Amino acid sequence: MVISDLLIIGSGIAGLSLALKAAKHCQVVIVTKKEQADSNTNYAQGGIAAVFHPEDSFESHIEDTLKAGAGLCHREAVELIVREGPARIMELIDWGVNFCRQKSPDQDRFDLGREGGHSRPRVVHAKDLTGKIVEQSLLKAIQAHPNIKIFEQHFAIDLITEHHLAPHTRVKNRPLHCWGAYVFDRHTKQIKQFISRATVLATGGCGKIYRHTTNPDIATGDGVAMAYRAGAKIANLEFLQFHPTTLYHPDANSFLISEAVRGFGAKLKTCDDVEFMKKYHPRAELAPRDVVARAIDAELKKSGDKFVYLDVTHKNAAETRERFPNIYQSCLKFGIDITRDPIPVVPAAHYMCGGVVTDLHGRTNILNLYASGEVACTGVHGANRLASNSLLEAHVFSHQVYQDIVSRYDFQSPPNMPIFPAWNDEGTLNHEEWVLISHDEQEVQTLMWDYVGIVRSDLRLQRARRRINLIAEEIENFYKKTSVNDGILELRNLTTVAKLIINCALHRKESRGLHFTTDFPEPDDRNWLKDTVIIQKDGSITFTDW
Description:
The chain is α/β, with parallel strands linked by helices. 34% of the residues lie in helices and 17% in strands. The chain has 15 helices and 18 strands.
């Protein structure tokens, strides 16, 4: 058993920034299922949106965010992250993050980029390696802190709640609490109890649910799946953002070509060298991501081609290499010199705009359980996330969680926690039987890509739901009969979240933001200007209120 004041599950910007602050007051444990530097944060190229430009304003950033969110953003949450943004950026600098500055005469100013959906330059960046630089700086600070302990290669299985208590010890009608998590140690193959006063989900997204994704392999929706099983509210999972431009190459593994490349001046063209974005949106290449992704999808279906081109060859070659060194070198490995050759690109699953419902303090409907980062649904993103608002939201809301935790918990007094039973896997089979269902992951990914992708229909979604229900039942039965291994844990979570996404998509009878269905191609403000919120009741998906 591992006991701490604060348990953080995940090691991206949301979890690491919170750990650094909370460790001033209490003992912090971080659990991460891979290496400590493996997270969606590490893959974020573009930057962090914040108001620093002299011609920019909080009101402008707020309005751009609300407009991108297609009516479903919660204004108070948007105002919170925008107004807190500059202070949180300066905090990162204090922790050692070096953002790019303008060359003379204004070296005291940030070199602000502009991306799709933004009306002003406001993206603070570290060239095209922003997420990696932020992650490295936070990890360096954490490794020097005596009150923080990181458990790598530890996979959180399920949250510990009253459901795990023996029936005779449960308090009737008591609100649901979270007391930590059962965690699988990949090294020893043991399952441990991690008990804590407060638990924070910072597990990132779910991109690996799809066949093509910009996300790392760890992004299997673990936090959403665990929270749903525990009884937390989940919202807006139908709004899955597809990044319009990932490198089309058999060996590139959907390498992300940052939105900032379009902000830099790159043009999207068909394979016969025709620009097409102006006919889809007045901002052309700077349109919101959902518009650009659907435009590319439409052009590919029209032409039958497998990709379109992103062309930056008309820009100064030296400036391109200076601004995008990582993208330049990565494409060069595949024989593409982006200063001379147009880049073949296709859309890929990128960001989960929905997630575990929280309030403005990061609190969920389960006491002692918080969520921050991509796993959370705070109300910021609505039906479509504005570019470079993700790292901003994660950092700001982790600050909110920090403030709430230090005001609510007395870390000087000993904790009063129930005693929970150890994990019991008696009677289960060994995991050699895993081969029987290991193919299900690829089937889920193909199913989601073909039927729950950029453009949907009721027929496709109904077919996907029938098939995913069968797969989910098969996996759950296998899970109950088999000793735990990380393969079955990820597949169980991946399938659970896929099932929730499909049900949310079928529930929404309109097209809005990232959710586009051919059966209801227009938005319906009269009936659907509201969040899609679900909760588990008696083992079934139930739609409820925020």
